[in-house]
Amino acid sequence: MQDTSLNSAPVKYNKPIIYFLLLWALLNAVQAFTLEIHADEAYYWVYSRFLDWGYYDHPPMVAVFIKAGYSLMHNEFGVRLFTVISTTASLYLMWMMLKRYKVDAVNFILVVSGIFVFHIYGFTTTPDAPLLFFTVLFLYFYQQYIEEDSLKLALILGVVIACLLYSKYHGILLVAFTLASNIKLLRRGSFYGIVLLALVLYAPHILWQVNHDYPSISYHLSERSADDYQLDNTYLYPLGQLIMAGPLIGWFLFYKGFTTKIQDVFTRTLLVNSVGILAFFFLTSFKGEVQLHWTLIAYVPLSMLVLISFAKPGGKPAWFNRLAVINASLILLVRLCIIWGPPFLLKIDAMKSFFGFKDWAHQIKQKAGNNYVIFYEGFQDPSKYNFYNNTTRGLAYDSRHYRRTQYDIWPIEDSLQHKKTYYVLDVWLPGVTTDSINVFAGKWYGGWVDDTRTYQRVEFETLAPKEAVSPGQKIDFDLTVKNPYPFAINFGNKDQKHPVFFEACFFKKTDQITNQKADESFHNISLKPGESTRFKFNVKVPDQPGRYQLIFSLRTEPFFGGRNSKSINITVK
Q1: Rounded to two decimals, what is the model's pTM?
Q2: For residue 176, is it within any domain?
């Protein structure tokens, strides 16, 4: 067995790594500077304007990354600055961990530059960017902690684990599989100190979830789950991972990584994490869609296993270098095309969000002036509008046909009540839309809404039926509603320009099946700030057997009705 102690003499070839990292950082910096903001990045930029311990979709570390970079440069590069820095630092730390295994610098460059998912998060700032950095940082200090049970390393690991969890919830998988690979950690007293410190540092986010009724847990574990199993979620998963690992070399990286001989505790940790994380998301494909990049953290240990294997005599086949060069060249060509923006590339859905929205946002601002702008359905468009106009006056109207987002928590909606607002849609709405906005990014329609009245932040809570119900059966839902606004609200329609309707909506998959209005007594409800009340809604279930989702929705004209309750599963037999 080769010497893997911390005191092993460092291998040569540090200069090629430094040159590679400089080129890596330069390419990412150019891409970060020249490419328009992506919709998700713009959304997380709005996060940074409302710094908090948590958000509906994710923990807050991505907002911290963006806040730090944008405070230095108020443009796309500022949003991506800390991603460019952190991904470069991550690769360097990986090299530092691998030096003790006598890994060759050329092999390192060929493998790392060929992993497609590393390129994606080399410049794009989403929660995956800090997740990648703190994953590598965790492994870096854990490698030392295996051999040195010190208070210093325990404190560092406690902080890093907290940062890992503040980056993305997937970080818990790295911690869990690391423990599974080395159960002897339970014998160390410092291990419990690490756990305690991480929990203490993470407590503000846990309290945020409690105070907001666990929105992230509800979203990730319930709302994102498919009602029925879809085969394509499962069979497309391995195909997608082959691309993420490298379009030409991915298959070989999986083979080589998974067959690497375990040399010590650390290599066992790498193997258990890479296999465990990929297997975990494969299993979740039976419950719903798995986005390809969710497995990002698996490629850190996988690539390291491959490189450790290559360091062994006969570990790397002679043909690999040629294939790896072609693979990296293809990825580089794609990245250069994205910078250049040829017409054929702009027809790809994944690329459209990067082009033409700066002009789009400015044209809408010219029409709306300093008024609030309401966008129909989805966080993407209002976030890009907000970013390019350096404002927070764009609001996502999350309708009953979509899902809830952080826009349903932020106080933006509070400020536009009974004001004149500009309403932007991607369809023509008779009687409302009077303008068309036709730009490179597409065509939108806009119009003015006087005395705007919305109730996006109001949520009705109730218990779902525990048993299946009969076709056409009527059920009394005992609803609880609380006023979340800092001002009094009422659901009366007297002397109101836009009447409000309270409706029970049944959906089957994405199609709305029925729509039932509450009785007139609903309009008598009036609530002071923080005050709550109860209301009984007699709902008739659909006549046809099947599985349905029930959503309670407040609708005011000219909007399509909000999502004012969690989705309630109803089975009709």
Answers
A1: 0.93
A2: yes
